[in-house]
Amino acid sequence: MFREVFEQYDWNEVKSQIYAATREDVQAALNAATLSLKDFAALISPAAAPFLEQMIHKSTLLTRQRFGNNMQMYIPMYLSNECKNICTYCGFSLQNKVPRKTLTGAEILQEAEAVKALGFEHLLLVTGEDGHMVGMPYFRQAISLLRPHFAQLSMEVQPMEEEEYRELSGLGIHTVLVYQETYHQADYQLHHPRGRKSNFHYRLATPDRLGKAGMHKIGLGVLIGLEDWRTDSFFTALHLTYLEKQYWKTRYSISFPRLRPFSGGLHPKVEMSDRELVQLICAYRLFNPDVELSISTREEARFRDLLCQVGITSMSAGSRTNPGGYTINRESLEQFEISDERSVEEVVASLCSQGLNPVWKDWSHIW
C-alpha cells in the first residue's frame, strides 16, 4: 500500500530539499535522459524559474512526440450536490445552507441530450459525497442510462471499496478521479473536519483500491492553494511513481485545480502564479512523458490556450459545475466558479487555430 511509502517521507524535510535545490540541480535534471524524483524536485523548485523557457521547449517537444497534436475533450455532468462532508473550500460542503439537488433519471437523459448536441463523447460524472443519496444503486441507474449514449464515462465521486470499483469498471466506467486535496496530513484534517472525507488514510488508499480493481485509468491531483504547492506536487509524483510500478496495466492522469471562489469562500494559503503553473506542468511532462495532463475551465481562456501548447493533453469546455446546469437548472449553486466561459465552439476554434486536433472519441468498448 502507498501508505507504507508515504510514511517514509517527512513533509518538512521534503519541502526543505525542494527549496534548497540549486541551478546545478536544475541543469542536471534538464540534461537527464530519465528523471528521478530528485530531478522532479529540482524542476519544481524556485531555482528552476530562470530555466522556464528551456523547460517549455522540452515539454512541448515531448508532448508532441507522445500525443501528437491531439487534445482529448471531455465535459463534466454534475449529478448531485448532496454532500455529508464539511470541506472548507467547496460550495457543496454540508454546512452551506443551499438548495440540494440530485438529478432524476429523466433529468439525466435531458442533460445527456444537451451535452451530446455539443459533440462530446467523453462524460465525467460528478457528485458530492453522500453514500446514501448517491451510492451504488444511484450510480448503477445513471450509468445504465448514459452508457448507450457515450463512448467513455469517467467518475469523480466519493471514495469507494475495491469491490464497488470492480463493479463500476464492469458497468463501463473507464476512469476514476480521486484528488487527495493535500498530502499534508495536519492541514488535510483542518480542511476536512467532518464526514467520511476526514479519514486521511482511507482517501490516501483509494488509488490502491482502484488499481486492485483493475480500473483502466486513475486520475490524481491536489487542490492547489491549500498547502505549499511544490511539496504537494512532489508527493503527487511520488504517488504516481508508486502506482505505475504497482499497477502497471493502469493508465494515469494528473489534474491541476487551483482554488477558485465559491459560495462561502476560502482564500488560498499559498498563491501559485500562472508562471509557476506552467513550470509545474512542464516538470510533470519531463518527469513522465506518457502521463495525461488535464486542465479544466477553472483557468482563464487565454491562459488555457497557452497551456495547450506546453504539455496539457486533456481539457474540458463549456462546463457547468451545478446539477442540471446544461438544461434544467442553469442558475443553481455551482461547486466553484469557472474562468473560461467560452462556448464549446469557441474553444474548438481556438484549438484548431493553434494547429491542435480536438478528439471527441478515440476508442470505445465492444459490447
Describe the structure.
The chain has 367 residues and is an alpha/beta fold. It has 15 helices and nine strands. An eight-stranded parallel β-barrel has the order 1-2-3-4-5-6-7-8, surrounded by six helices. It is globular, with a radius of gyration of 20 Å.
Summarize the structure.
This protein has 367 residues and is of the alpha/beta class. Helices cover 41% and strands 13% of the residues.
Count of helix runs: 15
Broad shape: globular
Largest sheet: number of strands, sense, barrel closure: 8 strands, parallel, barrel
Low-pLDDT runs of 5+ residues are none
Strand coverage percent: 5-15%
Rg from alpha-carbon coordinates: 20 Å
Major sheet strand order: 1-2-3-4-5-6-7-8
Strand segment tally: 9
Estimate the helix proportion, in percent.
40-55%
First-residue to last-residue Cα separation = 33 Å
Order of helices and strands: HHHHHEHEHEHEHHHEHEHEHEHE
Based on secondary structure, the structural category is alpha/beta
Mean pLDDT, rounded to whole units? Answer: 93
